[in-house]
Design a protein that fits this description.
There is one protein chain. Helix 2 packs across helix 11, helix 8 runs parallel beside helix 9 and helix 11 packs across helix 12. This protein has a seven-stranded mixed sheet with strand order 7-6-8-9-10-14-15, sandwiched between helices. Strands 2-1-3-4-5 form a five-stranded parallel sheet, with helices on both faces. It is globular and about 65 Å long. It is an alpha/beta fold. The termini are far apart. It has two domains: 205 residues, 3-Layer(aba) Sandwich (Rossmann fold), CATH 3.40.50; 142 residues, Response regulator (Rossmann fold, 3-Layer(aba) Sandwich), CATH 3.40.50. The chain has twelve helices and 15 strands.
Amino acid sequence: MKKIWLLALIYALGFVSAGAADTPDKYRIGALLAMTGPSSFYGQVMSQGIKQAVDEINEAGGIDGIPLEVTIEDHKGGGGQEAVTGMNRLLLSDVQAVLTSFSGPTIAIAPLADQHHILLMNGGAVSAKLVGLSPYLFHNRSLATDLSRIALTYAKESGAKKLAELQWQNDVGDSIAHTAEPLWKSFGGEVVATEAVPQGAINMDTSVAKLRAANPDLVALWMFTPEVGLALKRLRDFGMTQPVIGVEFTENDAKIAGKAADGYHFATDYFQASPDNPWSQRFAELYQKRYGTAPDFYAANYYEGVYVIAALIRRTHRWNGDALREALLQNPHFDSIYGGQMTFGANGVAQKRTALFTVENGQRKFVQFLDATPEK
């Protein structure tokens, strides 16, 4: 125990170099995921994508003969303190790159990434506050503000005018509403009600009753699983038949909402294996065989994130966060599991295709691709 605290103090005081050996015995990367708690669904699928990528790379000989190793720490679904504790443990393991998730934990560990020069790759967090948070932070996930633009662009064509919003009572929900409200007004609409519920809420009836009293033409859900499924169920239980739009719908939400989800439209990152992308087909087939289910975009994003880090190591042949970051900035183009290439913009966010879906008989159904100009 004394040794662990001594090492932690050494890191805190900056006596350990931010760089690491250029030719380590293993390339050790870290991941901060929600492995337990109410949001453990995310941690499960994200970790499955990570482990499959690591195993594939090692089975192919590693990175220039050096194996890749991942250590996963649990931030329990959003806790900043748990994320900081996990990040400090990863720093003791000589990681130079970390796959991060959730907005709160990512915001909490950003100062540590800056201090120790650790590359961060986010495949799941969606808050607009993440943009520009750290020069070491990059995103292969569409942010929620961009997704809300997609959903509202679709809703504008429906002729709806009066919008009611049900959002998470946190930074993510606030950032979406902050973007959505002026956009909806620019379309000629009005926001007649905005209600916020905590992440992890198990009862949102008071908020739903207030939305019903506002008599909107359209309801927007600015939240993520499992609250999406609960919100859809309770809106219909309260007799609300208005169209509903949002920014996510997972298998977990489908289990909660059942038939109440039918007709719901949502914008999201979209992974689909296709014949013109053999890599995507191989990933999907092996994932199905390994885990007994098809990969969703969270699994795809974290699988892809590992391959981005591996590509950076091959480009620079130096094992430190500064070298990895510079390699990305010098060449921000990478093969994407989604097909073709993705390019990281100046704001650190990768440009990837985004899709509009609806739900029929409890299952999501692709509608069309829509484009939304991301914030600069």
